[in-house]
Queue: 3 jobs
Job 1
Amino acid sequence: MPIVSPIKTEAEPTRSSRTARNKARRGNIFAWQKDDGVSARGSAKLRFAIPLLLIGLMIALCIGLYIGYQNLDLTVLRHDSVARNVFFRLRLPRVIMAALVGASLASVGAALQSLFRNPLADPFTLGVSGGAALGASLVIVLGIGVSVVGVPIIFVAAFAGSILAVFVVYRLAHTGGVVLPGALLLSGVVINLCASAGVLLLQYLADSTRSLQILRWLMGSLDVVGFDLIWKVLIFLIPGWLLLMAYARDLHLLAIGEESAASLGVNVRRTERMIYVASSLIVGVTVSVGGTIAFVGLIVPHVARLLFGQDVRVLLPTSFLLGAAFLVLADTLARVVVSPNELPVGVVTALAGGPVFLWLLRSRRRYSAI
């Protein structure tokens, strides 16, 4: 009896796997390609894209640092202690926070779009931001400013709200082993509406000071003083980023479909759980410090996909860098467009993201059908 080698057996896909791959080739925007070929092309794209995007990010950071209510003057910083203190305690931390929040939301958006195989998925449209906002608003109204083992309780509440929203949306949209794209979006919209109603109720019950604090925070604000909050945020964001990047290959295969990914060795349920936890952690932390900044996770991954292709292993790091640069520039625009007043950065991103979302909804109608 001839002995069939394990390599040969693995190289010969099952009939169901071939069918799924053919479907992906014909219609899915996350088109499947041979894994080793994608890896080689992806490495070449990354070697080209990462330095280019790093240069773009540095330019965006310089613009964010230079432009503001008063433009930066290096000669003044040398001998003016007040200007130096304002720069290092207000402007620099704010620009860094904008980069961290933008990178986080964009990478989560890219991961969720690949996981759910839906180009309209992002933390805002799936209700993740709404759940986090509800949890954080509850803490603000109750006036709980304590920390648990050094972790601000608002981080914990926002994380709990976001992971609960992810769980509910997934359970509502998952039926018969398939995630229905239309049901996914509809569930996310409903969760967002419910969360918004809860936040409005909390605002109504709160005193005027806390109600105004919630309103300002909900519109998106990146006001930060000093670096203390940035260090606390990084403690949670870095593990979430690393977890997303570690599962980039599995997400790339899941973009084909669960059946095909499982046939190629992906532990689908474990990958889903890890992406849920990482996304909820990242979104919970970013919402707790920056409010509900909408559509960053929708716009940026599509731009990265247009520029650098469909490979999720390329898409995640490029979305990360593009998201950082995008939100730094959006926050800079929010600071100067109605100077000396300031627009909430969430307003700027929503004005940019709303038309893009409607265009995607129209051009990808087959993904929104229930």
Job 2
Amino acid sequence: MVRPQPGDDGPVAAGAAPAKGPGASPAAPSARWAIGLLTQWATAHPWIDRAVVLVAACLTGLTVVGFTVLADWGTRVFVSLSTGTGWAAWLALAWTPVMTVLVVWWMRRFAPGALGSGIPQVVRAVESELPAPQRRWLVSPSLALHKVGLVSAGLLAGLSIGREGPTVQVGAGLMVGARRWLSASSRVDEHDLMVAGAAAGIAAAFNTPLGGIVFGLEQLTRRRGLQHSTLVIAVIVLAGLVAVAFFGNNSYFGRLRVQELSWSLLPAGLAVALASGLAGGLFARLMLRCAGHGDERWGRWRRDHPYRFAAACAFAVAVIGLVTGGQTAGAGYAPTRALLEGQAELPGIYTLLKFCATWLSAWTGVPGGVFAPSLAIGAGIGHDFAAAAGVPPQAAIPLIALGMVGFLAATTQTPITAFIIVMEMVSGHSMVLSLMACAMLAAGVSRLISPPMYNGLAAGLPVPEPSGPAANAPAAGSSSSAAVPPAAAATTAQAMDLGPADPSGRSPPRGM
């Protein structure tokens, strides 16, 4: 008979619980180690999610940098083409329509959700009741890359469009793609990711971090407060830092010295605010009509012959560019910079021609924004009133800045965003109150003429119901690709009124 030794519990009956106590079971230390490891892993999950979001923010910043380089290259190539001597300058009359038709064809065939500036798509995508497959059709990493290439091609064509507005859709699409890498228990949802990406895109494009934050809160968010506001701000800061690392910590128009608005310029400043509000309201109303909100005659032509219509509008843009020596092509950065420096040599009707070129470019349906062209138009308004009042070029800089903020606020009807962006872009901290007052007045005048442009365009986006395999596709940022197959793109082109998927179909383009 074997006597039990001290510390020996003897045989354990089947199903009986093991004895407890110090040294009772040799497996106890391993169990405690496993529990501790699991606890640390559970605690680390939120930090891993944050790291994923921040890495996505860096990639968004890099994409915006690449977008900027590619868009600037397209603009320079067209400028060198249009400013040539002899027959080279006239070549733009054929180059612009042909390139525009190619861009419109590619967009309608492969990326119908990339049309227009992209801001209406993000405004629609942040609606909480929108199903995930439809949200993926509006914002996705694949669509963001299409947007970069198509906008750059539009600038290469010589259209009066900008890249700054499209970075909203690009940033939102790239950030929402990070959702697939987050843990299932992550509280960071698609709404916060899209707002953060869109705001980061604006901040990196204009080098205006405060403007990006305010734009996200004023235009995009559908909540009283973001669930993860600190993370959103971190995304904006990181994307902005990436852009600064490549382009330097300069304002959008370089280092300018904007004087205070003296009392002697008050009557002219008030006239600039009112004129900017009226012109911006008219532009917003025209943009809504371009998208099919009430223009049946031209809409029928555009619906029946979309490529002919795009070519005709592009030809008119090319003629305007030929008259102005290429000054109305592109975003208008160079003319605006020259106006702010008091060294502009522009035609007397530059402002009107830039207005018409931007409107016609938008009417073609190509992907492209109106943020930067709006700044150029507003700068022209301020310059024209300064010239009419006999103000010297250097003293006219405050009026030019007022025109920029006034027209941008009137067009977008986001006055707080407009005045912060312009203030940061021109280093106009001495004009804070003047810029704010002008933005508020111009936006108020614009509301008397037109409803909010981006909200109206977003409401007119007939987002298609997915059919076939797309109906069961996972949400944006899931493990499957976010790209829309060509066949599905053709179907959604019909649903979006982007025109027929085959020659017999009939449907107009929408949602500039």
Job 3
Amino acid sequence: MDPRGAGIRTVMSAPAQDTSSRQAPASQDVFAGVLRRAPPAQQLPFQYFQDRNKRWPFSTSAAGAELLQRLFADARKVVEIIDSTIQQQCAADDAARERVLSAGVELYARKPSIKNADVTWSQEEYRHIGLQREYVKFKSVQRFTETWACMERADARGVFASLASAAQQKREVRVASLGGGPGFELIAVREYFNAKYPGVTLDLVSLDVEESWRASAEGLGLRFIQWDMKDGGVARACGGAIDFAIASYVFKMYMCENDVADWFARELADITACLVINRDEKLQQGCELVQSRGVDVLKLLRQDNGRDDRQLVFSRDRTFESWTSATPMAMTFPNVPYEEHKTSSDRGHRGGGGGAAGGWRRDGRSQGGAGRPSAPPRDPSRW
């Protein structure tokens, strides 16, 4: 047995192919091949995939592989809930069920709204049960690993220092995910706090306008509250004060408006911090929008090779550590989000991926890693 990852069971599969035009049987393990042992030459013992076609491997340790296995177990429960809903809606009509599944695959792959509305999916597409099944299969891994990496970086800056006293006082800590959908960001919060702050009792709440995510979130053991980003009132909606918030992939699309920035800045006065995770590296206008309202913006990714706003901490009247060029962090999920387009000196917190952590450079081509040719240009619509 490989001593680098003893005891970790991986689900292997044949080389991945593009499945956008067909739907695999629902009985097949939806996470087959997502986690695998790394080639012997690699420094870290496991590789995993965030993309649906399994083209871009990322590296992780045995501890990271265990976290992913637990994530898969949670996400399988959600897929079962969704499959049951599809079965009920289709009244045991196999042909109707296949149409729902195929439509979900098509919506996920094609992202028809992204060109016109600058949102991945419209609200109508987002509530499509077949699309939700695809979302759980693929976004669960990305959302979990990116949130975990963001929390590691934030923790190193002292963002969670208050949790030590909360554990001593046996006080419940409430974390709200703004626009959280099924809530895989909150699963990362639960796993991280259980590992790093084991005495803390958590109340995890997913807030989302799309009511149809309720069963999925509750299947993950979370509270779900239907809530509109424009309304604000996060503490009121959750039934009490918020300790931390997460805004994952919603800042640019839904929060960079004056009315939302107004309530967000006000409510941050009573929230220790909000972790903000974005797709875009350059969000100067959005950052300036909240900063003009007294919000402090702490950037968690290195800035010395170009602006990078993909992981931020928003707070008010609190002091956290700024980034320094100190000893690199040992990341559980190195290179998340991908940083191949940056110089080697700017990847100090990769954690030692052996040059094969996966991802894209700024020009859209895969870094490939040691011993591998560069992959074809990235197709953003496939992500």
